[in-house]
Design a protein that fits this description.
By secondary structure, this protein is of the alpha/beta class. It contains seven helices and six strands; from the N terminus they run E-H-H-E-H-E-H-E-H-H-E-E-H. Bound molecules: 3-methylbut-3-enyl trihydrogen diphosphate (IPE) (2 copies) and magnesium ion.
């Protein structure tokens, strides 16, 4: 099963406690580590985590710089743990616009975990669903694809992670009811679970509730269920 998460509410979490937003982000990263660790116990083989969007550059320089630093620190600290725990890391997004040291850290994380098979964690960093679609179109144009040969399958193969199945479940924390440019092609038939829990507070109980909600749905993919 593939679970995608829009990890939202770090700022509000910090604000509620009178702390700087970056403290909220640091605690958000702790929550991400927790979820990566427990996911295999819940049969989640693929986990996509929305970490930084193509629109998040609009925030203050202080917050953006802090986030870049935090992502790199977490990646460096967690890499040995990921290696030990069979986590395969993938990174989706426009890597070229990230600070160079972060780019090399993320490249190393992907290389050193490439053979791991317990769970695949797809980190969406400088990721935008529309940017991904544009990048796929550019790739296909460079391959001189004949428009008559273009199918949904062929198009999906040009997206950032052709080896990942579409998400079965999308979780968004902090109550917002929108996709904010996350995996917009891949979520065409994804079930959505929105929780009021702020991301830094997200724990096993929240994951269980989301999975239970998912199991109660009947997925029809446009068809009808014959009882
Ligand atoms: C999500 O938390 C983390 C990122 C978008 C990087 P926010 O920072 O968006 O938290 P809120 O929405 O302000 O509470
Ligand atoms: C989505 O959250 C992006 C990430 C979680 C990385 P935002 O907080 O940026 O989304 P909006 O601005 O509320 O739509
Ligand atoms: Mg937000």
């Amino acid at each position: 099963m593939h679970v995608a998460i829009i990890m939202d509410g770090n700022g509000r979490w910090a604000e509620r406690q009178g702390l700087p937003r970056l403290v909220g982000h640091a605690n958000g990263h702790k929550a991400a580590r927790r979820v990566i660790q427990m996911a295999p116990d819940y049969n989640v083989q693929y986990l996509s985590l929305y970490t930084f969007s193509t629109e998040n550059w609009r925030r203050s320089k202080e917050e953006v710089d802090g986030l870049m630093r935090l992502i790199e620190e977490t990646a460096i600290e967690e890499l040995p743990v990921m290696k030990r725990n069979g986590v395969r890391i993938l990174v989706s997004g426009r890597m070229g616009d990230l600070p160079e040291s972060l780019q090399s850290t993320l490249t190393r994380a992907q290389q050193e975990t490439a053979d791991n098979a317990k769970i695949t964690v797809n980190l969406a960093i400088n990721y935008g669903g529309r940017a991904e679609i544009i990048d796929a179109i550019k790739k296909l144009a460079q391959q001189n694809i004949d428009p008559n040969d273009l199918t949904e399958e062929r198009f999906a193969q040009a997206l950032y992670q052709p080896s990942l199945p579409d998400p079965d479940l999308l979780i968004r924390t902090a109550g917002e009811m929108r996709f904010s440019n996350f995996l917009i092609w891949q979520t065409a038939y994804t079930e959505v679970h929105i929780t009021e829990t702020l991301w830094p507070d997200f724990d096993a109980t929240d994951l269980q509730a989301a999975l239970e909600d998912y199991r109660s749905r009947s997925r029809k993919f446009g068809g009808i269920i014959v009882e």
